[in-house]
Amino acid sequence: MLEVRGLRVAYGGINAVKGVDLDVKAGEMVALIGANGAGKTTILKALTGLVTPAAGRIQYNDIEITALPTFRRVELGLALVPEGRGIFGRLSVQENLELGAYHRRRGGDGAIAADLERIYQMFPRLAERRAQAAGTLSGGEQQMLALGRALMSRPQLLLLDEPSMGLAPLMVRQIFETVRAIAREGTTVLLIEQNAQRALEISQRGYVMESGAIVLSGESAQLLADPRVKSAYLGE
After folding, report:
1. Which domain, by its residues, includes 121?
2. Lower Cβ count inside 10 Å, N or C end of the chain?
3. Three-point CA angle 8, 197, 151, nearest 5°
4. SS3 assignment, position 193
5. What CATH number should be reported for the domain holding residue 170?
6. What is the radius of gyration, based on Cα positions, of the chain?
7. Is the pTM of this model over 0.90?
8. What is the DSSP string of 93-121?
9. Closest listed residue to residue 32, CA positions, set 48, 44, 15, 50
């Protein structure tokens, strides 16, 4: 589904991503782990068109999207849940969710209404707070909202950037269970996550990134058992 070759992204004279190759197959959940500043978020920004690569190629479902604007990538089925959630604090919960389906508005309100109810069933707390300003939600509720908003676009490939950041353990467990359920329903997932143990436990394959480059890749179970991963990311 996703093929990245030779991706390089620079901020001024600093190379944040240095010639990365990465693949995600349809139906997979793939984890991308690494220390803060390794370049993981920059890769997601390049995939969604939020930054312009200095070099390389991004192909999605046999379409080269390297130079496509962000809205076209969303229309093609990519959705990003950004680090820090990026919710619209002054808008209501329901207005945030409806914005996730903005590009689908020409298809009629019936399908969008049905998807809203699906999100409310998935996250009952959001249903209870549908008229509440999103900025007044707890951190966990805002993460549910960011995830629900992305799902409202009906993505084929869901990009998740640090979904557990700053959340209490109970909420982290709920978010990961939800991500697992989304993957089981057939959505392909590329997951960036600070909790490397959890990320590798729920994914099929993984990549390890250091200083802008991929240094390890393989089946998640193999990476969990790798002494280098254990030492650097699992505290063993």
Report:
1. 25-52+68-233
2. C
3. 65
4. coil
5. 3.40.50.300
6. 17
7. yes
8. HHHHHHHHTGGGGGG-HHHHHHHHHHHHH
9. 44
